[in-house]
């Protein structure tokens, strides 16, 4: 026997090597969730029972948790594998429960004796399953039971019991707290229902509910919370049976008569319940008919105890399955005949506004599958009747979809016609949350109101009615709960009046110029001679105005040139290039010791509340990758010299030129390619990602960011399948974007510009070169590009030649044409100071709605990444930019996933699968200011779409959209990250165990 002394300094690898006697080169260890995986290999496969015997004896003497760091989770079970070196799959695997090591040792000893021939006894001690231990309510056993499912996902589990004191002076109750920890952020919708099913399957007694807390390792705040209702299924069935639910009554009676081998079916007609008793199992048709007396003695006490609402009597039938006529019939009077309160049906009670009846009917409507409700807890309903509105909250382990419940509820409430209710408001949320994820409103009658009322707060549990009401304020509400539809109608009517007035004014002005006439005016009133005179007069005035403007601009430039504009020189250019490489910009932690000088007219002295603000506000130091050399000028030159035709999108041309230069320099594609819109361009730092991957065991990985402003799914599809060759693509692509890139309802401006380009037409006209043919190409194929370009150069027509000559002649006469760049910068300065526009040049208008900054800030580096240091400050940002709500955002206009963007995404998936490329889609972070209720609803639709796509092979979905909704310092504007946020995203992606990073 090999003894192992517990030593905190020993690593797990050394400890396993000493325990088993296998060299450290033959041992591999991995901790995943609460599971420790140990792989033992050698030239010959290690003997199973001998290796297990040595390892179990070492485990018996050592606390494994002391061999791991304090940050690592506790180890609940160990998986031991054995294989021969060079083989892919292990020959044997054995699971060891650390709380039952003695029984495992007994089992191994029996196996060793059987192998040596000393004993023919097989088996050994009985290993108790974690499920059996968890049913007893022990927290550690529950944690081990849940870790069997969650450890596979890299999630560790810890369970605690805490006392919970209700607000209504009721006795304290036990609440189960389940803490899930992982190095990434698992999506709540993926874990909610499986964990809820496993917890409810245990049928724990003494617990009302359980709270699941998910937290990322190293972070202090929880990622998300989830409440699971632990009400036993029997109690749920009795609650619904009490309200006269036929399916629940039949299920309860079947459980009671199961020992008698009798099956029960029930049907309700008017106020009489018909119950059919048949043999539970009778495939040959020879089973006896259920005994009448026995069935009555078992059923009658149950029906009297249940006292179903609205059911006056029950008729019992005894027969064989399939018989048309029953063998015996009996009739029973139910408690509703003696107690009039029980005789009213739930529907009649709901018509009077009875809330318990309403809750039952709504929950039954939203949970048509009884088995699913018993497994997960189903969709729960909370009600609040406030003023003339009925507020209905729907929550479940996974937030119910708006389309799933809103229309059903509103149609049902409309049919009831509850007195005093003039409108209904429906909300949806995940169980455990207090704020709704979405809301929907409908007015049943016309209501007078001016401003909307705040959404009422619904408590996490339905016990405390006081928690459902918002705190009262002194703010007057003249017309509460104004619906979105009515607001839009009001705005439309006002805007229509403005448009009519503006149209009439413009019409008068155009008619007064005599250049335009009304369409119905006769031609006799405007003869040709009169029209010719008007043209000559206005043409002469226009020419004089043009000459005068040109002369005035020439005089302005002549005065400002000596003092403001320096002639270009090589020294000046050199100084401008070196000035960007300030040593302070190369540090990892960026600090700002001085603020840029504000323009004289910019009123930045006052904050949003009209109070003076201090200029000495401390700026928090944030980690970021060092700034790299800018590549914009190089990209412009490369794009200009490239033989590839332009795609009408300047950034696409420049990014493609940088990428082609990288391919030419390295001779192979990068290991990781990042694609997407400006959210990818600004949001994933290749340098930070490459550095973080080194710590994860992936050194020297080359990463390139091919983000393009305004890139949609169609642009990404065109780029991957038609612009780049398969040999120019890596084996893993990170697609970083969000919901608006998949909106098939809006106009795709970027892709529309690409389709009108020469490069787009040539991309579809060129014939693909197969691998076999490419090897046979001569060496001078590359050199023939210039000759081909000359052959394909279009001839200049006579009209174009004359036009060019006239332009040159007029330019030589003009006093300002040669200095047009200086005129443009002079005109831009006052516009930027006034804050009306951040830029004038149309080339700088981003197609995805992002705002431009200065040229130095908009410069990408040689990795294609755009590092922005600006931090999003809502108080200052919305003084310059308008706050656009989601229902007026063009990026979400007519939002729909289906359409051309979805088709392009499917093409990308099929192409990636055919080329064996791993495609990882990252839903990029957004701020809380950006995620208003409208955008949250669209984000939920996009989430469901992505989760559906995640079933495809070679496709991985990662959701970071709500990762830092309150961390404004990580953003440059409400929906785009800055370099500090990009650094955090890159680290998070590098630490994600589900992403198959390439190994060099």
Report on this model:
This protein has 1000 residues and is an alpha/beta fold. The protein is 39% helix and 16% strand. It contains 32 helices and 25 strands. The protein has a 5-stranded parallel beta sheet with strand order 20-19-21-22-23, with helices on both faces.
Protein traits:
four-stranded mixed β-sheet; five-stranded parallel β-sheet; single chain; 1000 residues; 25 strands
Number of strands: 25
Describe the main β-sheet briefly. Answer: 5 strands, parallel
Structural class, from secondary structure content?
alpha/beta
- Helical proportion, percent range: 25-40%
Strand % is 15-25%
Poorly predicted spans: 1-9, 460-484, 520-527, 562-617, 767-796, 835-857
Strand order of the largest sheet: 20-19-21-22-23
N-end to C-end Cα span: 41 Å
Q: What integer is the average pLDDT?
A: 77
**Rg over C-alpha atoms, rounded to the nearest angstrom:** 37 Å
Q: Give the overall shape, derived from the CA principal axes.
A: globular
In short:
The chain has 1000 residues and is an alpha/beta fold. 39% of the residues lie in helices and 16% in strands.
């Amino acid at each position: 026997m090999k003894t192992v002394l517990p030593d905190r300094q020993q690593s797990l690898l050394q400890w396993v090597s000493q325990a088993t006697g296998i060299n450290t080169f033959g041992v591999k260890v991995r901790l995943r969730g609460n599971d420790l995986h140990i792989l033992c290999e050698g030239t010959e496969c290690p003997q199973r029972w001998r290796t297990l015997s040595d390892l179990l004896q070492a485990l018996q003497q050592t606390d494994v948790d002391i061999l791991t760091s304090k940050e690592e989770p506790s180890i609940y079970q160990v998986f031991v594998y054995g294989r021969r070196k060079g083989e892919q799959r292990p020959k044997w695997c054995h699971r060891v429960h650390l709380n039952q090591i003695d029984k495992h040792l007994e089992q191994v000893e029996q196996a060793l004796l059987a192998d040596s021939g000393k004993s023919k006894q097989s088996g050994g001690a009985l290993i108790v399953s974690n499920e059996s231990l968890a049913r007893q309510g022990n927290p550690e056993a529950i944690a081990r039971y849940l870790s069997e499912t969650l450890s596979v996902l890299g999630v560790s589990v810890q369970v605690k019991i805490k006392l919970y004191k209700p607000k209504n002076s009721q006795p304290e109750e036990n609440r189960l707290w389940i803490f899930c920890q992982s190095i990434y952020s698992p999506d709540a919708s993926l874990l909610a229902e499986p964990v809820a099913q496993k917890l409810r399957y245990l049928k724990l007694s003494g617990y009302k509910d359980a709270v699941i807390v998910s937290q990322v390792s190293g972070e202090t705040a929880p990622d998300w919370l989830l409440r699971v209702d632990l009400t036993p299924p029997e109690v749920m069935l009795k609650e619904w049976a009490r309200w006269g639910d036929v399916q629940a009554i039949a299920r309860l009676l079947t459980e009671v008569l199961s020992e008698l081998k009798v099956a029960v079916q029930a049907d309700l007609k008017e106020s009489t319940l018909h119950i059919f008793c048949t043999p539970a199992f009778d495939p040959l048709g020879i089973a006896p008919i259920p005994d009448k007396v026995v069935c009555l003695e078992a059923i009658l006490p149950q029906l009297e105890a249940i006292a179903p609402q609205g059911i006056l009597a029950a008729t019992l039938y005894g027969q064989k399955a399939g018989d048309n006529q029953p063998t015996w019939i009996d009739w029973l009077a139910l408690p509703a005949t003696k107690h009039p309160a029980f005789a009213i049906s739930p529907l009649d009670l709901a018509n009077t506004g009875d809330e318990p009846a309403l809750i039952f009917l709504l929950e039954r409507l939203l949970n048509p599958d009884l088995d699913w409700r018993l497994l997960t807890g189903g969709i729960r309903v909370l009600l609040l009747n406030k003023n003339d509105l009925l507020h209905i909250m729907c929550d479940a382990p996974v937030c119910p979809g708006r389309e799933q419940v809103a229309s059903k509820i509103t149609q049902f409430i409309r049919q009831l016609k509850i007195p005093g209710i003039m409108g209904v408001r429906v909300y949806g949320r995940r169980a455990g949350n207090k704020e709704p994820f979405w809301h929907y409103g409908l007015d049943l009658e016309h209501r007078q109101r001016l401003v909307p009322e705040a959404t009422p707060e619904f408590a996490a549990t339905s016990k405390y009615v006081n928690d459902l009401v918002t705190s009262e304020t002194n703010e007057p509400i003249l017309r509460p709960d104004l619906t979105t539809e009515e607001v839009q109608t009001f705005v439309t009517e006002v805007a229509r009046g403005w448009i009519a007035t503006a149209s009439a004014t413009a019409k008068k002005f155009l008619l007064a110029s005599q250049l335009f006439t009304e369409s119905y005016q006769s031609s006799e009133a405007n003869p040709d001679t009169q029209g010719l005179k008007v043209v000559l007069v206005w043409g002469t005035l226009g020419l004089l105005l043009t000459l005068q403007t040109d002369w005035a601009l020439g005089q302005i430039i002549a005065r400002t040139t000596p003092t403001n504009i320096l002639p270009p020189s090589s020294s000046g250019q050199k100084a401008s290039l070196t000035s960007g490489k300030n040593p302070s910009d190369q540090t990892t932690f960026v600090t700002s010791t001085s603020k840029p000088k504000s323009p004289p007219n910019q009123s930045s002295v006052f904050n949003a509340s009209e109070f003076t603000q201090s200029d000495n506000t401390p700026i928090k130091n944030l980690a970021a990758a060092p700034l790299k050399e800018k590549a914009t000028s190089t990209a412009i030159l490369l794009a200009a010299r490239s033989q590839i035709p332009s795609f009408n999108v300047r950034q696409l041309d420049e990014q493609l030129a940088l990428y082609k230069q990288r391919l030419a320099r390295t001779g192979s594609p990068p290991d990781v390619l990042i694609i997407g819109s400006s959210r990818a361009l600004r949001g994933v730092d290749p340098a930070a990602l490459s550095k973080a991957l080194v710590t994860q065991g992936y050194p020297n990985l080359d990463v390139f960011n091919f983000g393009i402003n305004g890139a949609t799914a169609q642009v990404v599809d065109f780029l991957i399948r038609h612009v780049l060759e398969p040999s120019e693509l890596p084996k893993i692509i990170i697609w970083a974007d969000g919901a608006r890139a998949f909106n098939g309802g809006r106009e795709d401006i970027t892709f529309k510009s690409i389709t009108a380009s020469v490069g787009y037409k040539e991309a579809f006209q060129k014939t693909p070169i197969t691998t076999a043919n490419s090897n046979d190409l001569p060496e001078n194929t590359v050199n023939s590009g210039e000759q081909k370009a000359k052959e394909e150069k279009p001839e200049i027509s006579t009209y174009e030649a004359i036009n060019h000559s006239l332009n040159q002649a007029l330019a030589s006469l003009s006093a300002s044409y040669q200095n047009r760049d200086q005129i443009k910068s002079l005109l831009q300065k006052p516009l930027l100071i006034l804050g009306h526009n951040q830029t004038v040049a149309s080339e700088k208008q981003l197609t995805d709605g992002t705002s431009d900054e200065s040229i130095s800030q908009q410069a990408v580096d040689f990795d294609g990444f755009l590092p922005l240091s600006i931090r999003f400050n809502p108080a200052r940002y919305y003084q310059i930019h308008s706050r656009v709500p989601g229902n007026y955002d063009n990026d979400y206009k007519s939002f729909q996933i289906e359409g051309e963007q979805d088709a392009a995404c499917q093409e990308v998936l099929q192409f990636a699968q055919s080329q064996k490329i791993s495609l990882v889609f990252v839903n990029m972070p957004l701020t809380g200011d950006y995620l208003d209720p409208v955008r949250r609803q669209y984000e939920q639709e996009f989430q469901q779409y992505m989760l559906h796509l995640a079933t495809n092979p070679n496709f991985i979905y990662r959701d970071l959209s709500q990762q830092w909704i309150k961390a404004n310092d990580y953003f440059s504007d409400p929906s785009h990250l800055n370099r500090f946020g990009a650094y955090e995203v890159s680290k998070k992606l590098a630490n994600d165990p589900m992403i198959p990073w390439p190994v060099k």
